[in-house]
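Section: Multi-chain targets

For targets with more than one molecule, the full set of components is provided together so that the structure can be written out for the assembly as a whole rather than chain by chain. Components appear in the order listed by the source. The example entry contains two components.
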Amino acid sequence: MAAKPTQDDAFVTEITKQSVDFSRWYLDVVRKAELADYSPVKGFMVIRPYGYAIWELIQQQLDQRIKASGHVNAYFPLLIPESLLKKEAEHVEGFAPQVAYVTHGGGEELEEKLVVRPTSEAIIGVMYAKWIQSWRDLPVLINQWANVVRWEKVTRPFLRTTEFLWQEGHTAHETADEAQEETMKILALYKDVCENVLAVPVMDGRKSDSEKFAGASRTYSIEALMGDGRALQAGTSHNLGQNFAKAFEIQFQGRDKTVQHVWTTSWGVTTRLIGAVIMTHGDDSGLILPPAIAPWQVVIVPIPRGTWKETVLPKCEEIRDQLKAAGIRVKLDADESQTPGWKFSEYEMRGVPLRLEIGPKDIEKSSVFAARRDTRAKASIPMDGLADAVKGLLAEIQAGLLERARKFRDEHTFSADSYDEFKATMAGRPGFVIAPWCEDAACEAEIKAETQATIRNIPEGYGEAPGKPCIKCGKPAQVSAWFAKAY
Amino acid sequence: MAAKPTQDDAFVTEITKQSVDFSRWYLDVVRKAELADYSPVKGFMVIRPYGYAIWELIQQQLDQRIKASGHVNAYFPLLIPESLLKKEAEHVEGFAPQVAYVTHGGGEELEEKLVVRPTSEAIIGVMYAKWIQSWRDLPVLINQWANVVRWEKVTRPFLRTTEFLWQEGHTAHETADEAQEETMKILALYKDVCENVLAVPVMDGRKSDSEKFAGASRTYSIEALMGDGRALQAGTSHNLGQNFAKAFEIQFQGRDKTVQHVWTTSWGVTTRLIGAVIMTHGDDSGLILPPAIAPWQVVIVPIPRGTWKETVLPKCEEIRDQLKAAGIRVKLDADESQTPGWKFSEYEMRGVPLRLEIGPKDIEKSSVFAARRDTRAKASIPMDGLADAVKGLLAEIQAGLLERARKFRDEHTFSADSYDEFKATMAGRPGFVIAPWCEDAACEAEIKAETQATIRNIPEGYGEAPGKPCIKCGKPAQVSAWFAKAY
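Its structure, encoded as tokens over all components, is:
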């Protein structure tokens, strides 16, 4: 669309400073960078073209990896009969408070209420029961790109909205081991995308029982740390055991001719990832996008001096075409109604990784002036071999953002061996605090009530009994858990 | 997913012959080729991986062209307040009987009922009113990939389902001319995709007033002819005039400083296109897919004789990798539990354009045995330069399918100058009958009641007054209209 700024978008200085109010800063960036907008339906957002372009790039990277690991895409119905949702007891208990009901269709009241899918285990379970008969039919490895609806009281663009977009994988396996292997494989895939595409470092581990997906045997998550010291769950992978297989009678004849229930998994990441990117990399000037998901990796701003239209502009077009041919996503902004200074702020605010300024003097020197968004480093680059130089810079920016975020995360990760130490460390929004825990849900609940901190997950490496007492009850700890205040 | 056939899928001879019952043939193909399945919710289908892979290929081709013509993607809410739908009078009248209502969310009855989007003009209209202020903001060229729900009494997989997937473009322009230009540009884009990707020839033209989109000034469609002689509307492009702009107060300050309403368009194609492909190209053996949208363009079937595993299989793998490297979508089926004969039928039924058989003798001759799905022509091809030969064959198949379908369509297109001639020609399912029409809706309705034929559209080339009397009332005809019995 025409992304021309309207009057009230013109002043990027209107973005609240992170240090003043991180939450307002976030909303300002979402609005000013035209990532999303509020809709007339409470809790529902509109994803604007610039935000959706980021989502498409994330989708491509995820979809490639999901397919490369043997999965295929399919599409299941949006509406689910209420009776199906009720088949798995924990599942319905977890989701019932959040569902939207369709009660009328085609001018008539429906015989049975339909639920707008909050997730698709139920409807997919019914189909798998129909499709799977023999061990030869296994594994079934299906993914779906879809919208889901979960009624939320408090919403925030990308982070928590009543409707959101996601991918949901649903797999069925012959053995418990294979299901567990799949669960962990996907967790690693998600970690790969977060770190190597979004440049968002994540800690992967198992959720505590109280934070499990409704109906899962084990839930694993990846957890990122936002710029304000709060954690964000960025993706989950569930080993559903035989819970859904039993509820939906998904059975197969095994190699030994006995009839058995399959073992299933499910896993998903959502448009929330865009929120993670904003809050991991952004600064007071706005968005900072990792090149891998930047709709425009490079913006070219001509400096309009003298006979620039005859000299500078054609060169800018030539360079744009060169970069495009090299597979770089590039925008040339030759709009005369805005000054270069306005454009600098605008594209900084929109997080474009690299700006190339080209004026008459640059042309004389046969170079361009490059400004990095992440470090604000500036340098003159020869036009000769520019595409390679730009690719190199983009790769540096991508790696630099991950490194910077990892450093921030590590500097905001603490450990505590006593409850006093824990409470002192957890004051404010320090980041992660690793602490020994007995695995008793009562201790977890008390810690949450008293400190607002929740167990984000229990990383595998830290999963062994730490040989220390639980910070809350003093009994022997079973695990080292990562605590944080979270979104 | 594991697409291994289960017992009841094993016999492709179970497909009803087209000549016996075209409608049952269609359903058999959809089920046997695992394109779609019925779901537990009446009228909702599951798009299975093989069907969805076709949709993804269609999507890619459409999306590329939509973006190349200056449009960007975005995402708008699934649920629309009922009051918004009611703002455009004709729009609500057209869609009200078909909508599904969400009345409860989060455990509470909603203050205002929400409609599951049947199309998104209303919700997008509200946003455009917010985003557009000046002529500088125009045009707005946005597309959305989404699911929509329209309650249907009689459904058929892909052709008419209560929920379907589509893209819907929504644009806003400064002038009436620009909106009309956009409407026609998209119609041409749709025609290009249908003919050059799906190999489905279409007739493009204007809909009669009674067949217009609810709220449109003018609706244009592309119409295809199915193998049973019935027409199928394959896509529509609407010039909405200022109807929605006025209903939603989408205004801008013009170049002359006056406040004006924008001119809007909307346009869409759906998963119905998959139905068009099935019914245009399929035969008694099942599906025939044009290479451009075939999930597997080539299947390699090794002939398991003697020491095939040491000789034939490695060669098959080598050829698979060669073809893959050349950008060809190829599947090697080395499954020992099925015979080559079974595989031949299976991949024919699934419409794979080209089969390569490779046995010990082919290896000796350093050639492969190729069988085309479309013409069933068979030939030996040297392994040397195989990828290029395969590419050539696929291009031939793609072109051949379009040519064959165009020939069929032309042979099933007739004209009639009197009502008696029209009725005689329209008996059974002859295809299209072109006839002079006065543009009076009463004549159109009577013709439909008496012959079941509807006006599919009025092609531009045939749009001038034919200088003949209307076949129904005898008054001077305004246009030559294309009539057919339609899906």
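The first strand of chain A starts at residue 36 and ends at 38.
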